[in-house]
Predict the structure.
Amino acid sequence: MTTATLGVEAIGSASAAIEAQYRARTRSSRMLYERAVHALPGGSTRAATFYPPYPVYMARGAGCRLHDVDGNEYVDCLNNYTSLIHGHAHPRIVAALADQIARGTAHGAPVEAEIALAEALTSRIASVDQVRFTNSGTEGVMCAIRAARAFTGRSKVLKMEGGYHGTYDAAEVSVDPRSDAPEWPAGRPDGPGLSPGLSGEVLVTPFNDLEVATAVIDRSRRDLAAVIVEPMMLATGAIPATDAFIRGLRAVTQEAGVLLIFDEVVTLRLSYGGGQEHYGVRPDLTTFGKIIGGGLPIGGFGGREEIMALFDARRPDPVMLSGTFNGNAATMAAGRVALDLLTAEEIARINELGDRLRTGLERVADDAGVPVRATGMGSLCHVHLTRDPVHNYRDVARARQPAIMSSLHLALLNHGVFAASRGTYSTSTAMTEADVDAVVAGFGAAVGSRGTT
Ligand code: PMP
């Protein structure tokens, strides 16, 4: 056994003690969970917020701190899966919301803030002339794909293996296929309840492999409406695209007349003009979500005017898109302030905090003899239990140790760090260097777990 695996073994053998400490600290959460299982399947309404033995229930959040129902405090690195880029209850967002809510949340009519939020996006993002808002990133992706189909008159979509784009059927293909099948581009619907027909409609290639993507696009160009890709795959493990891959995809799709959709639901935060500005690539369509809603539910998509014009209700045959809460006044008011607060300077600051976090996590893991690679870029990070390079889904899948990750997650909670059980971390404008250092110290204590914590 190498020293690098000794630390992992130690976490494994400490798992019972870690869970016992977790249970002792979170008795009120357990009682809530026991109540929840009667009215909610598995006690939960959202796959991502459940982890065994039961999740922590939160009472309140302020800035980068969360307080659970048992009175424990956490530094929040999860930020509702990266959507709370300004942390919890930012005073300016709270004030804007309070002002709006007092005048109504949704009037069944447009409000000025909807125009302001749309203008904020079109002025920041060079490739986006016009936008439409939805209530989730999932719907934003669904609409972008619909737009691509309507614009090209073709039906197939190409996505990356391991790419997460929400819970729309066509997006739930080969997100976590748990297979090493060598052939492309056969996609695999990710679980029961999805149409088996999806495997013919949705093609899949490996992330960061331009050669395979080019061959598949070339072969399928007559049926292919769009390629959808994140500039950095977040959910699978914060894997940045290589310059060659993402620029190559742009060139190949352009040449084939296939639309390129950047899913920037997460990566918009990477620079003032989004992940696309960072890479210097202009997609045809972009999807949005998370940070643009100021903490309230949101999604959206945008792009070139000639494509977005398909949704123009003044046309005789517009692409259909409606939604009871699309553009609701409360979300628009909060989102507008959130984007105002997200200046280039603040983005640079949280990106530096992200660098500090990645370096710190790897350092303390190394001290504890646990092999860790903290991937990502800017304010987004993912902890992998390996020192090997991580370029795509299969690299992530090879390094996975679910039982160890699960113990590590509970140990982190025991040490006051709130991060995703799968290993995602993000920095927010509510954080200082001292907060990041507190996360690193908590992580150091968690990876150093040795039977007693
Ligand atoms: N695209 C990406 C890249 C995402 O990470 C997510 C959500 N994590 C979505 C789309 C879906 O967004 P929502 O959860 O708001 O539907």
Q: What stands out?
A: Residues 81, 136-138, 141, 164-166, 230, 234-235, 263, 265-266, 289, 299 surround 4'-deoxy-4'-aminopyridoxal-5'-phosphate (CB under 6 Å). The chain has two domains: 3-85+345-447, 91-341.
